[in-house]
Design a protein that fits this description.
With about 450 residues, this protein is an alpha/beta fold. It is about 25% helix and about 25% strand. The structure holds flavin-adenine dinucleotide (FAD). The site of flavin-adenine dinucleotide (FAD) has 33 residues, from α1, β2, α2 and α8.
Length: about 450
């Protein structure tokens, strides 16, 4: 019997690591320390539970705690925070005593980063990150049915929340400090997102930063600062902050692990930190970008679960056909709000330039199926490629259709190192109700090589 594998963090990365270890190396004891009462739930599904699309929050639980304990044989300890790590003695400290490890996987996730304004502790001000924070927000929403809610920040989660709070009948307002909604998304594509929000029930304003919060009767007094002109004073029933996240690294840093991109725990392609016997995975750890080759911080669920499995295989020294090395990330993401899907994969134009490519971009709008078919939707794609070689570097897409399957295809093309010429020549399938004779992906690639209609 090998020594225990101890995992800190009981969500996507941590439980992927723990379950993989039990599957691959059943003789090895696995202990999971999770400080909250909730494990193995989909944080990604929280906005949909809050919007009533997912009726019960238990539906978000992938594997119930009892199954993890009884069927998978994981020694799962909830309400148990890891306070320190002594890598020389191979021990983790908790309030209930010390836990010895042979191998340690740190999967402590990320924390929300509020804007630097006074009054963050005002009652009625919420952040959405964990099941506990979602339960608190749900209780506040129940207290104020149909109330005025201010969302601060227009990243993918902010926009998902906007849609879901509309579904629940709230009067939803959104402010974004940047020039436009979905910061980082190309202007022409972001404009379609803004239009969809306007057609929904959301009042969205850009170039408007949160400057202060304070109690006001039963609600929250909000100070908003425009780029020009005087501050605005407004009152809301609730405020939800969605202004970004940062890796939670205190435990790993305290153990002496080096930090890298985004302030996350630096790991190699096996998930090993710089401290022997300690691995890190998920939102607390770095990744490397498949296209730029650079170290990046990419806090997404897909990256977290894969990283957890790879770290566990390495920590348990078990192999098989499953990859021993992290394959690198593309930064792929996708979401949907008010019937519009949008997302990206690979490098956008500024990131491609930054990475040293002589990159160019082209935007094309086409249809998702034949124009005469009911339900036809427009899809706009922006293709980023290396000018001299034609290599595909990245894509952004927006459309009132199944954008994610297009982004999957594009991610595969980028990962495979395909060129625009390759893509323009791929034999795609066509049937009027399902696809267009020339898909927008093909149209964009064809336009680059001068084979456009
Ligand atoms: C609202 C929302 C929507 C999202 N939507 C998407 C999406 O659509 N697609 C996508 O890919 N990603 C999405 N994400 C991101 C995704 O949820 C995260 O990337 C993923 O949860 C990361 O998993 P993790 O295990 O690394 O971290 P976490 O899920 O944050 O888990 C870390 C765990 O560690 C515990 N912990 C921390 N410190 C300690 C300690 N010292 N001792 C014990 N326990 C500790 C925490 O309590 C927590 O349970 C979303 C996130 C949120 C919040």
């Amino acid at each position: 019997v090998s020594g225990p594998l101890v995992v800190v963090g009981g969500d996507a990365a941590g439980l992927s690591a723990a379950s993989e270890a039990r599957r691959r190396d059943p003789s090895r004891p696995v202990v999971v320390l999770e400080r909250s009462a909730h494990v193995s739930y989909s944080a990604c599904g929280l906005p949909y539970w809050l919007g009533g699309v997912v009726p019960r929050r238990e539906d978000l639980v992938a594997v119930p705690a009892e199954e993890l304990r009884l069927r998978r044989g994981i020694d799962l300890r909830t309400g148990c925070e890891a306070l320190w790590v002594d890598p020389a003695a191979r021990r983790v400290g908790t309030a209930a005593g010390e836990v010895a490890y042979d191998a340690l996987v740190i999967a402590t996730g990320a924390r929300p980063v509020p804007p630097p304004v006074p009054g963050l502790d005002t009652p009625g001000v919420h952040q959405l990150r964990s099941m506990d924070s979602a339960i608190a927000l749900d209780a506040a929403l129940r207290d104020r049915p149909g109330g005025r809610v201010l969302l601060v920040g227009s990243g993918p989660v902010g926009l998902e929340m906007a849609h879901n709070l509309c579904r629940r009948g709230f009067d939803v307002h959104l402010v974004e400090a940047a020039e436009r909604l979905v910061p980082g998304f190309p202007a022409d594509l972001a404009a379609r997102v803004a239009a969809a929000l306007g057609e929904g029930c959301v009042t969205a304003r850009t170039r408007l930063a949160l400057a202060g919060l304070a109690p006001e009767g039963e609600g929250v007094a909000v100070t908003l600062r425009p780029r020009e002109g005087a501050d605005l004073a407004e009152v809301y029933d609730l405020v939800v902050l969605g202004t970004g996240v940062a890796p939670r690294v205190e435990l790993a840093a305290g153990a002496g692990c080096a930090l890298g991109a985004g302030g996350a725990v630096r790991v190699d392609r096996r998930g090993r930190t710089t401290v022997p016997g300690v691995w890190a995975a998920g939102d607390c750890a770095t990744s490397w970008h498949r296209v730029s080759g650079r170290e990046v911080w990419m806090p997404t669920a897909t990256v977290a679960t894969r990283a957890g499995r790879v770290a566990a295989r390495d920590a348990c020294r078990v192999g098989g056909r499953a990859p021993a090395l992290l394959p690198g990330v593309l930064g792929s993401w996708v979401t949907e709000a008010f019937g519009l899907g949008f997302g990206a994969t690979g490098l956008d134009l500024p990131a491609a330039h930054e990475a040293g490519f002589a990159a160019e971009a082209i935007t094309r709008t086409g249809r998702d199926r034949s124009g005469y078919m009911p339900g036809v939707e427009e899809v706009t794609v922006r293709l980023v490629h290396d000018g001299p070689t034609g290599r595909l570097l990245g894509w952004q897409a927006v459309g009132g259709c199944d954008v994610s399957s297009r982004l999957h295809a594009l991610a595969i093309a980028v990962a495979a190192g395909m060129s625009v010429d390759d893509l323009a020549g791929v034999d795609l399938a066509y049937a009027p109700p399902l696809s267009a004779l020339r898909d927008p992906l093909e149209l964009a690639a064809a336009a680059v090589i001068g084979d456009a209609a």
